[in-house]
Write a structure and sequence with these properties.
alpha+beta; Umud Fragment, subunit A; 3 helices
Length: 207
């Protein structure tokens, strides 16, 4: 049996082959980002000290098709339009004094946010010293930056998270524009869970 020998190609044939390979590689990369894993760059300090501005993470877009998001997950999602229009809650502040925003505005924004899930559907939630109190139990969170912004750190009147919605907070509790101000987020607006940080090199690791 004769060994396989690479087939000679003309200059034009080699160029066509190269173009096809590049096109296939780009198409595969786009498919991976669209359906499997998507890179994301941290745009603000709201998740410090867990994630710094400019740090890059890989977002798993598959798992939530088979299981529910969990408290503690760091997720990338589309916020409500109220989150990009001056932290607007879907309910007037006069109707929820001393409580987190109980309902978001109905429109989905085009931008991406990254936060941590602190409460899920049906949970009773209030805020004490920047920590979520879920169903009467205050979360133990030694990984957050302390909250020192007065009223937004203490919202003692509880709300109930609506069905199929999730309450998001940044780890930098005193400097995070999050669900306290613009309400819970529908599950359908969650893009995926941030699983791995890959840049800068000294921060590589699982979240």
């Amino acid at each position: 049996m004769n060994p396989l020998v690479p087939k000679p190609t003309t200059g034009r044939g080699a160029l066509v082959e190269l173009v096809v390979i590049v096109a296939l590689a780009i198409g595969l990369a786009l498919l991976i980002q669209a359906f499997l894993v998507k890179p994301y760059q941290i745009p603000s300090p709201s998740m410090e000290p867990t994630l710094d501005v400019g740090q890059r993470v890989l977002v798993d877009r598959v798992s939530y098709h088979f299981s529910d998001p969990q408290i503690g997950d760091i997720v990338v999602f589309h916020p409500p339009e109220g989150a990009v229009n001056g932290a607007e809650c879907g309910v007037p502040e006069s109707e929820h004094p001393g409580a987190p925003c109980p309902e978001s505005t109905p429109e989905e924004a085009d931008t991406n946010f990254i936060k941590r899930i602190v409460a899920g559907p049906g949970d009773r939630l209030s805020i004490r010293n920047g920590h979520p109190v879920v169903n009467g139990v205050m979360a133990e969170e030694d990984f957050i930056n302390p909250c020192r912004n007065g009223g937004t750190c203490n919202l003692p009147k509880p709300i109930t998270i609506p069905p199929n919605e999730y309450f998001m907070m940044g780890d930098n509790r005193g400097s995070s524009d999050d669900s306290r101000f613009w309400g819970p987020v529908p599950r359908d607006w969650i893009i995926g869970e941030a699983r791995l940080t890959y840049w800068p090199p000294d921060r590589i690791g699982f979240l």
